[in-house]
Amino acid sequence: MALLPVDEALERILDGVKPLPEEAVRIAEADGRVLARALTAARTQPPFDASAMDGYAVRAADVETTPAELDVIGESAAGNRFHGKVGPGQAVRIFTGAPVPEGADTILIQENAQSLADGRIEALHPVEKGRHIRRAGLDFRLGQPMLEEGRLLGAATIGLAAAGGHPTLPVTQRPLVAVLATGDELVLPGEPCGPDQIVASNGFAIGALARAEGARILDLGIIPDDAGAITAAVLRARDAGAHVLVTLGGASVGARDLVRQALLDAGMSLDFWKIAMRPGKPLMFGRLDEMRVLGLPGNPVSSLVCAHLFLRPLVARLGQRAFTPDLRSAVLSAPLRANDERRDYVRASVAAGPDGLIATPFPVQDSSMLTTLAASNALIVREPGAAAAETGARCRVLLLG
Ligand SMILES: Nc1nc2c(c(=O)[nH]1)N[C@H]1C(S)=C(S)[C@@H](COP(=O)(O)OP(=O)(O)OC[C@H]3O[C@@H](n4cnc5c(N)ncnc54)[C@H](O)[C@@H]3O)O[C@H]1N2
Ligand code: MOO
């Protein structure tokens, strides 16, 4: 049977996936969340004409010719306005952020004023009308759109929302991704490791990748190669309301590769198994009620490359985040062999050269080797059936970010 092309696999995984419903979060906890609907200003900023400088609120007409003497009749500070009116020949001491008093139409900065005796000042230079005054609503006005739906919230956007008077924000729920590792050979880092055992690493890597895309993680731990135990763990994920279940390992064809059967036993409808991709051929995908199930291969590189290509966009879409693979053109610094029928994702390091990006593939591409994946910042994407490529040839690279 022909293997499913990668792009079609992604389409099938994303088919019908919609952003999760919204929830309210306190603004102090909104960092990294996605705005579920557009936000409008609940107030006007600044709410009054405000001074942008420390100095004196004056009438421009009084300082047209300088030096000019003025009577200081009071003070307007941020949080404590002056309630009177500035008349001809008068000034009010004013500080940055304070309301400009009635009658004044400009700000004389204190560097351009000389203090005299008896609460008088001398304006040393003329000031044009409106100088150093922030008009009410300069930043935004009540009811004005501030932030659009789908906006990823960070420092500036959270600051804006707070200034707009929002104590809580409507954000898209974070997808819950359950992660289930399978294999009798696996132990956790730091646990005693028998002679035939290895340390389970995939769950940590996948968890990190999913979290970076906005997911919450439900860690189901390591389940032994026992179909019944795997099925029970799958049902735990569903009952916990996981939006996505990621299984790790046991996806291939060996007699001990029990995950597919265990998923079917749990009631999953299988959409596909095996795709035209290297690494990651035994990838499987299906649905169990509302939960999407991604069965990732056990080899650490296969598992993480598949997660980059399929789990990230799935989690992003559920969480209403924009996701666009960062594909670029580069020049090969070493030759590559002709490709077979699978799309190949070749670990590589990509660096800027004088004429654009230069891609250097790692010579050994075994899908168990995390050292090369950790050293890679990109994958060279080679189409099925691609001819051998010489040094200097153009290639497509997927930056891992
Ligand atoms: N006869 C065939 N054999 C294999 C085929 C095939 O088509 N025919 N496909 C190969 C490919 S490609 C891959 S990829 C692997 C994937 O196999 P599984 O998904 O069944 O993975 P396992 O056999 O369970 O494990 C493979 C390897 O990865 C280690 N592993 C598993 N889980 C973890 C984990 N959580 N952390 C770290 N390492 C893990 C496991 O110990 C094995 O060494 O199948 C090929 N075989
Ligand atoms: O697809 Mo497997 O991932 O070649 O090692």
UniProtKB/TrEMBL annotation:
It catalyses: adenylyl-molybdopterin + molybdate = Mo-molybdopterin + AMP + H(+). InterPro entries: MoaB/Mog-like_dom_sf, MoaB/Mog_dom, MoCF_biosynth_CS, MoeA-like, MoeA_C_domain_IV, MoeA_C_domain_IV_sf, MoeA_linker/N, MoeA_linker/N_sf. Catalyzes the insertion of molybdate into adenylated molybdopterin with the concomitant release of AMP. Pfam families: MoCF_biosynth, MoeA_C, MoeA_N. Keywords: Magnesium, Metal-binding, Molybdenum, Molybdenum cofactor biosynthesis, Transferase. Belongs to the MoeA family. The lineage of its organism: Bacteria, Pseudomonadati, Pseudomonadota, Alphaproteobacteria, Hyphomicrobiales. The keyword Magnesium applies. GO terms for molecular function: metal ion binding; molybdopterin molybdotransferase activity. Pathway: Cofactor biosynthesis; molybdopterin biosynthesis. GO terms for biological process: Mo-molybdopterin cofactor biosynthetic process. It comes from the Bacteria. Its cofactor is Mg(2+). Its EC number is 2.10.1.1. The keyword 4Fe-4S does not apply. NCBIfam families: Glp_gephyrin (NF045515). One of its GO terms (cellular component) is cytosol. Coiled coil: none annotated. Residues 178-317 form the MoaB/Mog domain. This is Molybdopterin molybdenumtransferase.
